[in-house]
Amino acid sequence: MTKHIIYILLAIFSNPFYSQNIKSIQLRPLSKNSYTAIVPLGTSLHLSFDDLEADVKDYRYRIEHMNHNWQKSRLLSSQYINGFDENTIINVTNSFNTLQSYTHYEVQFPNTNTVITKSGNYVVSVLDDYDTVVFSRRFVLYENAAIIGLQVSRSRDAKHLNTQQTLEFSINHPRLRINNPSQEIHVTLLKNNNWKETISDIQPTFFGPKQLKYTYTNKTNFWGGNEYLNFDSKFLRNKSINTVRIEKGPTFQHYLYPYNYNPNLTYRYNPDINGQFEFRSLEGNDARTEADYVTMHFSLTKDIPFTNKKVHVYGAFNDFKIEKATELFYDFNSKAYKGSILLKQGFYNYTFATVDENKIVDTNEINGTFFQTENQYTVIAYFRPFGSLYDRVIGVGTSNFSQDK
Hints:
- The protein is an all-beta fold.
- It contains three helices and 32 strands.
- It has three domains: 13-142, Immunoglobulins (Immunoglobulin-like, Sandwich); 147-224 and 372-400, Immunoglobulins (Immunoglobulin-like, Sandwich), CATH 2.60.40; 229-362, Immunoglobulin-like.
- 3% of the residues lie in helices and 45% in strands.
- The strands form six sheets. Strands 1, 20, 21, 22, 23, 24, 25, 26, 27, 28, 29 and 30 form a twelve-stranded mixed β-sheet that branches. A five-stranded mixed β-sheet has the order 3-12-11-5-7, with no helix packed on it. Strands 13, 14, 17, 18 and 19 form a five-stranded antiparallel β-sheet that branches.
- It starts with 6 loop residues before the first strand and ends in a 5-residue tail after the last strand.
């Protein structure tokens, strides 16, 4: 369970030694402008990624059903899938007219080989020829068996009045018989589709005949954080938003405007997409295979380096992971943290995170945390009646924080 934006990083569903040649992983519904893999049961999900080795490999995908706490459920694959839980990815395309060659892989499910029949938490993994898990992603399929009402507001805790946001919600279940809500119902609160920022293991504060209410002062509080920074690399040769300089090399080198560290930062509204990203290129017709890779150079100016802490670029572009490729290093000559990441052309949100010696990650230390920040919250309700083998997802509620609340 993670209660705050400061958390101990747990890489549960990813192989830390996966090939650095695997880039641009996306798992999303087919509908445009949707960044979440939390969808109604039966919705088509699209999984795609690039392999920079630019050859053709026999990658396979495997789908596993999980419990509410992301442990493997007791169901057999035949009990939640019509067809096969593991299949070869056959939709493979080579990049076209790009400096960085790559092979693009994609698969959509449900498909003729895989039809998921039950709601719940799922993990889709991609395996290579040696049955090694290359990467994994989570997704959630839900039923509309309950109505989730969610309200996000400024924290009522005087200590965190200016820095946190609180969630109040209800689960209305007119068609479900819930005999023991404290044992049969579990909920997960999720911030900005980031599974590193969740709250769980909370009990209802009110039990009604067909309704459960959750109204807490502290237990359902999240740090507000700050709006994400952004850049747009849709042009290879011309500067776009927040790009100060472009150089040509084996790949194009885009240098972003330095971000100045300010411990007394105040909140300023800046529209964002909550840490997400979107591939696009105005120099090609199909961003999937004609968008090139750009080396993005990041810079964070600070007069003296942090003591016993590392600085990383943080965002959904790598599933909010802290890894070697995202680390910035302090340059004493320019008094700035600097680093670069190879990313496919597109529009990206990102922020900066500090990591201490205990691997505790803090995304508030550099950018601050404010109650005004626009964030998207999701409530996922799980139901396992007595004697059942798995957790159904009976409903999902979403809401964005508004300063008017």
